[in-house]
């Protein structure tokens, strides 16, 4: 698996800021399915997955953990699990 320019940009931004920038305000707009168009693909899931694999390849555990936190946050937004943000991730991992 070769990392894309976009994936390296996510990593570079993380190195300088300590934050993940994976949401594309223009390309990730969700819209109602009208039954005729293809289902909208949320590219942020793909960006997060590729970022995680890049972190593994580079051996950057801090980056991988930040990406996993981003995946959990995105999942919580998708299914409405706001309570996840009140517990540290390591607490959830130990008690699930």
- Unreliable sequence segments: none
* Radius of gyration (Å): 15 Å
* Contiguous helical run count: 4
Major sheet: none
How would you describe what is shown here?
- By secondary structure, the chain is mainly α.
- The chain has one domain.
- Helix content is 57%, strand content 0%.
- The protein has four helices and no strands.
- Helix 1 crosses helix 2 and helix 2 runs antiparallel to helix 3.
- The protein is globular, with a radius of gyration of 15 Å.
- The N and C termini lie far apart (31 Å).
- The mean pLDDT is 77.
Entry keywords:
mainly alpha; 96 residues; globular; 4 helices
The gist of it:
The chain has 96 residues and is mostly helical. Helix content is 57%, strand content 0%.
């Amino acid at each position: 698996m070769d990392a894309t320019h976009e994936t390296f940009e996510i990593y570079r931004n993380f190195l300088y800021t300590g934050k993940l920038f994976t949401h594309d305000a223009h390309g990730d707009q969700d819209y109602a399915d009208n039954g005729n168009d293809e289902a909208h693909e949320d590219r942020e899931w793909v960006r997060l997955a590729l970022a995680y694999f890049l972190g593994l390849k580079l051996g950057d555990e801090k980056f991988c953990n930040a990406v996993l936190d981003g995946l959990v946050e995105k999942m919580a937004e998708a299914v409405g699990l706001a309570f996840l943000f009140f517990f540290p991730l390591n607490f959830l991992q130990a008690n699930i």
